[in-house]
Amino acid sequence: MTAEAAGKNKRRRRGGGIQISRLTVTIVLANLIGLVILLLGSFGLTQYRDGLILAKLEGVRAQAQIIADVLAQVAIDETSCQPVEEAEIERAGESNAICSLALNEGDVTEVFNRVWDSFEGRVRIFNAPQTFETPPVKDASALLIEDVVLRRDKIVMSDLPPLEEGGAEGFFNSLTTDLTKWLSDVLSGGFRKQAARRTVEDELNSALASSPFASDRGAASVRLNENGELVASVSVPIRKVQAIYGVVTAEIGGIDDLVAETRRSILPFFGLAATAAILSSLLLTAAIAQPIRQLAQATDKVREGIAMAGRARIPDLAHRRDEIGELSAALRAMMQAIYARIDAIESFAADVAHELKNPLTSIRSAVETLDIAQKPEARAKLMGVIKKDVARMDRLITDISNASRLDAELARETRAVIDIRKLLKDIVDLYATINKEGDARVIFDASGAPLYLLANPSALGQVFRNLIDNARSFSPKDGEVRLFLESPHDRYGMIRVYVDDDGPGIPEDALDKIFRRFYTKRPAGAAFGNNSGLGLAICRQIVNSHGGRVFAENRRGGAEPGDEKVAGARFIVELPAA
Length: 578
Known about the structure:
The chain contains 14 helices and twelve strands. A five-stranded antiparallel sheet has the order 2-1-5-4-3, with helices on both faces. It has a five-stranded mixed sheet with strand order 7-9-10-12-11, covered by helices on one side. The protein has helices spanning 3-12, 22-44, 46-74, 86-92, 105-114, 167-187, 189-197, 200-208, 255-307, 323-372, 376-412, 420-434, 457-474, 535-545, and strands at 121-127, 144-150, 219-224, 230-240, 243-252, 416-419, 441-444, 452-455, 480-486, 494-500, 549-556, 566-576. It is of the alpha+beta class and 578 residues long. The radius of gyration is 52 Å and the shape is rod-shaped. Helix 2 (22-44) runs antiparallel to helix 9, helix 9 runs parallel beside helix 10 (323-372) and helix 10 (323-372) runs antiparallel to helix 11.
């Protein structure tokens, strides 16, 4: 185990309870990111801001139109209206007379002192420009007559901030103010930039060019005042008949304050939502992250237990009936399969040691006896025993090697759709070519429609060769081994292959034992050591890996009716059809 892996295992084992992990942080962030986006979107308040500005513009427009109408009746001195010189008119291409003195400043001041204390906002009165240049207004301050801020009659009291704020509290307040201003600038940056590009001169020029017959007289805009505050402004020309004597500009602020107040009112709801999101994240952590951590710790213990020849258990979370429950069940099944494989390997190793020990013991005895044997016949007999035991060991080692590699080969090799009828015919033809005098013949009727299954051809061929070799070894001299193929009863049924012999049969208590590794039980008089006891075990292993099964039974029925004498052994292989 590397140091890095050991460190991870230690971190996993640091106590129980809800632990802050990467998955926990991911869950919290996933729950909070939507709320943050919603908060930022609500801080933009685009629709609310636009509706607020539209309402303020409507109010300011009504105020400006009333002021313009009153001033048109009170503050205009028609006798002072003199046409501009004809040369200038001709140069400008105009024929309308423009008043040289548009408004009476004294009358304007008198009007504001007496009438407009009920209005709110800033009101400015401008004279009409006395030029034909384009644009006519280049400097609004040169035309300004009156600039007043109108408020309702009320007294507003508020505590002044301390002259100096020091320490952590002052720093926190300053930081909060700067952060709020920065956030406001970021969220409404584009809108404020457009407002900053608008000027009073642009608004006055638009008002002078507006039609007197429009339902909304003058021009309206949202711009920044001298203090950088967002204001809603309306400029309305002061007209009498068709002549323009001046312009009333009314503006009102407070937009930023109202929007900021609305944003602040959202924060408590965001705090509640964030608290709910964090609590739900912790619940998800307890329901997801913590069980996964437990499973990870358990798998570490299983791995360490395997390394230390111990056993560990995976927590059983199948009762959850969700993905984590499925993961727990899968890990438990995997662990059981691993332990089963370990047990099989241990049992196989013990069986191998036992099987190899027998010929080694025989060889040792023969060698020890060979030293004291004097007669050539005895020495030759001992040498024959040694040779047979060496051949037996060679056969055992070969079969053991094949059996140990079988699982890996079955996992690596690809499977294909094969015709089992043709495969059996090829195997039977091979035995027909190598059959010797006295050996049992292998018979198979290959007629019939093809039967397809998905299998590994070489591995499946080994199964039937082992079964045929086993049947031939138990068959009498010049006997027969018969193969039968049975089609499945439905589309998803099992294909059956029968291998029958005419031997002595199988003891009833050994019908399943014969498929165990190294199990051999030969009839009296059979040559000793010619079989390793792995052939049938390999057959079962291969058939099981193909999703089928193989088993044995005895054939009964003698020559006479009703005779239940054992007539031979039968091996049945069932494989799923393709």
